[in-house]
Amino acid sequence: MNALFQxxxxxxxxxxxxxxxxxxxxxxxYINALLRVGFHTIDFGSFVSPKLVPQMADTAxxxxxxxxxxxxxxxxxxxxxxxEDAVKHDSIHYLGFPFSxxxxxxxxxxxxxxxxxxxxxxxxxxICDEYGKELVVYLSMGFGNPxxxxxxxxxxxxxxxxxxxxGVRIMSxxxxxxxxxxSTVSETMRSVIPAFPDAxxxxxxxxxxxxxxxKIEAAFEAxxxxxxxxxxxxxGCPMADDELVGNMDTMAIVAYMQAKGYCKxxxxxxxxxxxxxxxxxxx
Length: 283
Known about the structure:
Layout: E1 6-9, H1 11-16, H2 24-35, E2 41-47, H3 59-63, E3 72-77, H4 80-87, E4 92-100, H5 103-110, H6 114-131, E5 134-140, H7 153-165, E6 170-174, H8 182-192, E7 200-204, H9 212-221, E8 226-229, H10 250-259, H11 268-281
Parallel strand pairs: 1-2, 1-8, 2-3, 3-4, 4-5, 5-6, 6-7
């Protein structure tokens, strides 16, 4: 994978809201197939309450049986306890924390206020430093929210600045419910990327099929070089309490980026096999 470009595959996001429980053995088989493709990172699971996200209750069992490849593993955590569980696993490189620009969604997702969540970011960053992990913070509802909470680029950048001051150097602006348009994606990324020149600023976008390429292009032309996707465009956040809007389809991202000269070293045979597996699992 080109060092200047990071493609993050998110089977965790595809699986977490799936209507039926996926057997642990199937998760392991599928994620191992994804690990052979050559993605920069695999967002594979989460250490969160099994009552809230039962699909992820077996994350610890899954990670123990994943292959070691050039791809780095990322696990989502929502609090310090989850971080403690995650850092025990040597194979996990990144911990991801969902910080919401929308106070309403922050309560729904992590049962905390944004200020309390900033404190959690600091605590999780400290344990990441202790165990040699990197923290990725997702700015959910980063393009607006459906709850009427105040939002503008200044609010988004202000929260990102506080996160940056804690030493976080990877932040991803997340659409969450597919509200963003190509123009708002472009405007937002052109605002935040120059504000943090020493950080990697990515996008975790959701989109209906007809908007895929326009949103990818908007982010890319604005300077973004870290993209999250999921095979088949499956998934969405079950905490959004809304009709799930699919993730960005990885195949669409790959096609666009290869035309731009990126993603040339992906194993396309392994990618095709993983796509076939995804169609068997998500039926």
